[in-house]
Amino acid sequence: MPAHSMERSMKQTLIVGIAGLAVSAAMLGLGLNLGSSARQQTAPVVIEAPQDAELDRSGIEAIIRDYLIKNPEIMLEVQTALENKQRERQQLAQSAAITEKAAEIFNASYDGIVGNPNGSITVVEFFDYNCSFCKRAMADMDAMVEQDPDLRFVLKEFPILGADSQKAHVVSMAFRALHPDKYPAFHRELLSGSGRASEDKALRIAVELGADEAAIREEMKNPQIQEAFAKTYELAGDLAITGTPSYVVGEEVVFGALGREVLSEKVANIRTCNSTIC
């Protein structure tokens, strides 16, 4: 074989190999496993390079583009693989955050408690008094604590739905500080009310439950209330919580009002793990 022909053949072989590696590297970088469709192929993927192709970036990109256009289903597999990898990374980060900040998540002094204060299983809920899904989820919480006398619900006040929410939660925090035994009744009354929760509505409920309005208003000035909110916002960031309701059950973060059956199943799984090796 003439030297120039051998050189051209080697260059074509090299560019095909590099293009194949580039496709593989791009896919691996996105966490791609070609999946069932790729595994079903019995012949290796062959990407043909033009006779006079030069070994440069634009040539490799053109080969990759041509391959992907001919096999567009790969893009769906890439997207699925990427989402799965992101989900796995998020779950690992959440688990690490729960372990690191367990005391602040499960036993913060500024959180309200519903159910058995000494319960062996704890469910933590991040909520906003103006969250419609939180309103619906309250019935799930009540049913669970009624049926399970060993269950402890920790309520993390997480006002994210505007100024009304912020002010209503300030009243709630002040009321809990002064009347912790009446906090569950206050919480249920304010969360179940029609219309938007506000400072005026929260104060009215507080007074109806026996609080002194002047004392509540004075406690509302306590800087520890805003400090507690700041800590809750920080925790939410660590746990990738951006909406309400969101829950922490064991080492898992649960997003959304998924219903009593889902939460009860997760509680049951924790009990099983506590009595056996998971």
Describe the structure.
This protein has 278 residues and is α+β, with helices and mostly antiparallel strands. 61% of the residues lie in helices and 9% in strands. The chain contains 12 helices and 5 strands. It has helices at residues 3-29, 35-39, 57-70, 73-100, 102-106, 132-147, 163-178, 183-192, 199-208, 213-219, 223-238, 260-275, and strands spanning 112-115, 121-127, 151-157, 246-249, 252-255. The chain has a 5-stranded mixed sheet with strand order 1-3-2-4-5, sandwiched between helices. The longest helix is centred in the first third of the chain and has 28 residues, at 73-100. The termini are far apart. The relative contact order is 0.10.
Notable traits:
12 helices, alpha+beta, 61% helix, five-stranded mixed β-sheet, disordered N terminus, 278 residues
The tally of beta strands, per DSSP, is 5
Beta fraction of the residues?
Answer: 5-15%
Query: What series of H and E elements makes up the topology?
Result: HHHHHEEHEHHHHHEEH
How can the largest sheet be summarized? 5 strands, mixed
**Overall mean pLDDT score?**
83
Estimate percent helicity.
55-70%
Overall 3D form? elongated
Radius of gyration: 29 Å
Largest beta sheet: strand ordering: 1-3-2-4-5
Q: Which structural class best describes the helix and strand composition? A: alpha+beta
Count of helical stretches: 12
Regions with little confidence, pLDDT below 50 for 5+ residues: 1-47
Distance between the termini: 66 Å
